[in-house]
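Suppose a classmate hands you a notebook page containing two proteins, each written out with its sequence and a corresponding row of C-alpha cells. How would you begin to make sense of it? This section walks through that situation. The first entry is reproduced here exactly as it would appear on such a page.
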Amino acid sequence: MSGYQTKVYIVQKYDRDGSPGEIIAVKLTFASAHQLAKSNAPAKVVFAIADKSVFRNVPVGP
C-alpha cells in the first residue's frame, strides 16, 4: 500500500482587517474554489497539499 498526495484549495473567510475567519469549503479545483470565494467576499483561496501515507502521524509535543 502506498501513499498519495493531492492539491486542495481551501476557501476561508477574512474580515476587513485581513484576519482569517471560518473555513467555508475545501475544493479540488481552483475554479470552483475561486467561484465560492467571489460569492462569499471577503474570502480568499489558500492552496495546500493533502497527503496520505502508510506511516502513522505521531503527535508533536510532550
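The notebook's second entry, a different protein, reads as follows.
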Amino acid sequence: MLKLRLNAIELLGLLKKKYDYKLLSEMLELPPSILCRYVKGRVLPNKSRSERILALFSEKMLTEMIKAKITRTEEGFYDLYEVVKDIRLQKLIGKVAFNEFSYVPVNKLLTVAADGIPIAVEVANEFNVDLIIAKQRKDLSVRDCLEEKIIRTPPIIEYLYIPRRAIKRGENVLIVDDLIRSGKTVITLARLTERAGGNIVGVFSIAMIEGMAEKLREELGMTCQIKSIVTLP
C-alpha cells in the first residue's frame, strides 16, 4: 500500500533526527545504507519494513511526545488539551492509526462531538472515508435519527444521536476517540453502529485508562483490535 510506505518514510525522517543510523539499524535490523536511501527518498520500503518503521516511531517517539503533553487537573482528571490542539502531532497520530488498522477495510469513522473530533478528522483523512460525528443533541435539520443513552456517574442520563442513514448496513466502522476513561462513550457508539447494521472493525484512541480494553471486550463481546497509543494508570 503506497500510503503506508510514504508514511513510513516521513516518520523515519523524524526518527533520524533523534537517533543516528547505527542505532536505527540495530532497532530495525536493517543496514544503515538501506535506511539512508529510505530517508533520502531514493527508494520506498516494502510493506513489512514500513510496518516496522511505523511501530518503532509509535513506541520510541510518539508515545513520549503525547505523554509530555498530557496534564492532570487539580481534581485528578487527565487533560489532553495540549495534545488535541497540536495539529502537527494530530497528523502523526493519524498516520500511526492508519498503520494499525490498514489491514481491515474501513468504510466509515465514528466519533463523538467533543475533543475526539480533531484526531478523528486526521484518521478519516488517512483512510479517505467519511466521518460521522455523534452529537448530544438532535440536529434539527435531520429528521430521522438513531439514539442511544449513556448513564454517567453520578447518575445522569445523556443521549447520543446520529442520522439513521449515516451508516449503511454492512459497512465497516472504526470508532475513534481522544481519551477512553470509563468506556461508556465507546460502548454507546458501538451500539449505535450495531443498530445501524454496521460492523465494528476497531477502536482507536490517543490515550486509554488501564483496563479499558478488557472492559470493552467483556461488555460488547468485541473481537476486533482495540488500540491506544498511551495507557494511563
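A careful reader of the second entry would note: The mean pLDDT is 91.
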